[in-house]
Amino acid sequence: MIFTASASEIDFVPDGDLGKKVWAAPSRVRFACDAFRGTEYPTSETTVACLWTSEYLYLAYWCRYESLFYFPPEELCSEGNELWTRDVVEAFVAPENLNSKHYFEFEVSPNNRGLDLEISVEGGGVHSAAWESGFEHASRIDRAVQMWTVEMRIPARTMGVRRIGPEVDWRINLYRADGSYEQRRLLSWAPLEAAKNTFHQPEAFGILRFAARRR
């Protein structure tokens, strides 16, 4: 599976507005399938677009929903806000090395709580919550059309990449956790092996391809 990132002529700070001109042109991928059981959830359909500049990777998510389930601002919880236990979008990104078991995880909730982790699944799997990517994010909720959106800006340098360019493919997978504890929906863009029952399957990541700039 290939996810194509379009080149952006400008860098910009996320504000959650996906109606901006910059998001009109990039190709999009859509997924609404349970990551492990194959069940389709049309009312949880998730659409994602990607842009790149030499310094930043940008991701935009459009998320249909039936109801919202997230941590309110005043509710403290354990490591990384445990965002993955409630509504959240996620991107697992492995720069440059197509066979890497070392990658980076980015999550954002509907009310704009964020989480970034450095992951290695070598030797049984470890992650570093102390790693700070400096990624920026903004989210918006449109209750009238039951859609929440997220915009992310991820610095290449914090993932050990000097510059982004079309010469090298990366690996990526895109996810969404949706619904209450009783009606949990775990969605994935690239298919996962059901028996492993985890999002952390780098061997299943799709290809992130950077389209060349238009001349």
Structure description:
The chain is mainly beta and 215 residues long. The chain has a single domain (2-67, 84-210), classed as Immunoglobulin-like (Sandwich), CATH 2.60.40. It has strands spanning 2-7, 28-31, 46-52, 56-64, 88-94, 102-108, 114-120, 126-128, 136-142, 147-155, 170-178, 185-188, 206-210. Strands 1, 2, 3, 4, 5, 6, 7, 8, 9, 10, 11, 12 and 13 form a 13-stranded mixed beta sheet that branches. A hairpin with a 5-residue loop joins strand 7 (114-120) and strand 8. It is globular, with a radius of gyration of 16 Å. The protein starts with a strand and ends in a 5-residue tail after the last strand. The model has no long low-confidence stretch (mean pLDDT 91).
Number of helices: 0
What would you report as the Rg, rounded to the nearest angstrom?
A: 16 Å
Distance between the termini: 27 Å
* CATH secondary-structure class: Mainly Beta
What CATH architecture would you give? Answer: Sandwich
Strand count: 13
Overall tally of domains: 1
Q: Which structural class do you get from the secondary structure elements?
A: mainly beta
> What do we call the CATH topology?
Immunoglobulin-like
Mean pLDDT: 91
| Beta strand % | 35-45%
How do the helices and strands follow one another from N- to C-terminus?
A: EEEEEEEEEEEEE
* Overall morphology: globular
As a percent range, the share of helical residues equals under 10%
Largest sheet properties: 13 strands, mixed
Q: What low-confidence regions span 5 or more consecutive residues with pLDDT below 50? A: none
